[in-house]
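At this stage, I needed to go through a protein sequence along with its fold in token form, as given directly below:
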Amino acid sequence: MEFRDQVVAAYQRIQEDICRDMELADGKSKFEEELWAREGGGGGRTRIMQDGNVIEKGGVNFSAVYGKLPEAIKKAFRVESDEFFAAGVSIVMHPSNPFVPIIHMNIRYFEMDEETRWFGGGIDLTPHYVIDTDVRYLHHLLKQTCDRFDASFYAKFKKQADDYFFIKHRNETRGVGGIFYDRLKPENTGLSYEEILNFSIAVGETFSPVYSELIDRNKDLEYTPSEQEWQYLRRSRYAEFNLVYDSGTKFGLETNGRIESILMSLPPMAKWVYNHQPVIGSPEWETLSKLKKGVNWV
């Protein structure tokens, strides 16, 4: 089996497993699947859950695409070749309860030839209300996953998540981070491509234990209309990041990806209120005070 075929098989299995786990965690809604083909080469499986007990809108997408690389992407990647292959799983969950956080995961593999190929990805959390014990739980599990492969990974990838998931025009992080990595290959990790694939799989397998636990902890908490309004405001920040800064969104649009799959990350309902300022000392104010780089959660 070619290496890229191993990646595809592993990522398809991860999509299957996570969809099953999220249906169990939600207890009501089921994923709808749409198979799609990309003009130019490849395609994917888009799976969307809507109006569940817990998950208001969630997507677990798999894609494997190939073809000619657009000039803009060639410049961004600093590569010369035209041919590319890319496979990945991308997940975003928008819960209905403000005390259940938004979560995002992406694992991906990019290949142009034997010498030009790498892995990227990560998991990060965007709470509407920062609950410290939940955030520590996420970071502890991510550190455990990283430590299985390299003791330096967690600190390095945690910092990269803080730097990447940063809304510059707001001077705040999108959420409480997690891990983010890109261009992992033997030259910069000391691992073989097979070992880096195993790390990518391990990150994918960390998703369900983390999010199922956070759902169970918070799904039955009561909330007020004003707390839901705050949720809609926080969702708007999530949308701003994805539309302005997210590299996956840009790559999908530049490579003629499927627009519905690319924009599935956007929340079902968000609000922009002019110059909204939370009351000092309120839970909303406390949450904003923790949306900054460099917070040690482990």
User: Anything to note?
Assistant: The mean pLDDT is 94.
